[in-house]
Specification:
The chain has 210 residues and is of the alpha/beta class. The chain is 52% helix and 13% strand. It has ten helices and five strands.
């Protein structure tokens, strides 16, 4: 089954351009377009896409608010935030809201496609520059509840970019068990997304930023 994508951007030309080249890949299927955050939320409810490409600066309901609502109501829908500048504080807000990652709008087409496919698998991928910026801003509590040895290993693999299925194979455990570990990790760290957990792993030196 192709990966179902919803594009949210207030510029028609951007949406059309994204749809055009994404649909060239047989593994991807753009199922809808939204011109603002509120429409993105409504279409996400109707279409249940696998991945939402979310512009952050839109009129009315912005991308950060829409990301938070989508992740709260539909936790299986992953959101990739799009922004024009790395320093945009909206990016920090999007990660707090539960986005699995973000891309700059000048990202190459092939890199965007790889990121979408990774997001659909629940994989966290952060460029070193982005991780260095985010790790200073998106922080878990200073004294989070201690992780077990197994949870620490799951966090390391998660932060390295492994999906739940890949973690299960690596550790020779069931995928449902991995999901339970991930849920416990998020709860103990006091974060809402895999990306925030991965940033915490970078911050404490469990993995390298790259």
């Amino acid at each position: 089954m192709p990966i179902r994508i919803l594009i949210a951007d207030d510029h028609t030309v951007v949406r059309q351009g994204l749809r055009m080249f994404l649909n060239l890949d047989p593994e991807l299927d753009v199922v809808g377009e939204a011109a603002d955050g509120r429409q993105a939320l409504e279409l996400a409810r109707q279409l249940l896409p696998d991945v939402v490409l979310m512009d952050l600066l839109m009129p009315g309901m912005g991308g950060v608010e829409a990301t938070a609502a989508i992740r709260r109501e539909m936790p299986d829908v992953e959101v990739i935030a799009l922004t024009s500048v790395l320093e945009d504080n909206s990016v920090i807000g999007a990660i707090h809201a539960g986005a699995i990652g973000y891309l700059l709008k000048d990202t190459e087409a092939d890199e965007l496609i790889r990121a979408i496919k990774a997001a659909a698998q629940g994989q966290v991928q952060l460029s070193p520059k982005a991780a260095a910026r985010l790790v200073r801003e998106v922080r878990a509590p200073e004294s989070p509840e201690a992780l077990t040895e197994r949870e620490t290993e799951v966090l390391r693999l998660l932060a390295t970019g492994f999906s739940n299925k890949e973690i299960a194979l690596k550790l020779t455990i069931g995928e449902k068990t991995v999901k339970t570990h991930v849920s416990n990790i998020l709860s103990k760290l006091g974060v809402v997304s895999r990306t925030q957990a991965a940033l915490h792993a970078v911050r404490i030196g469990l993995v390298n930023p790259g």
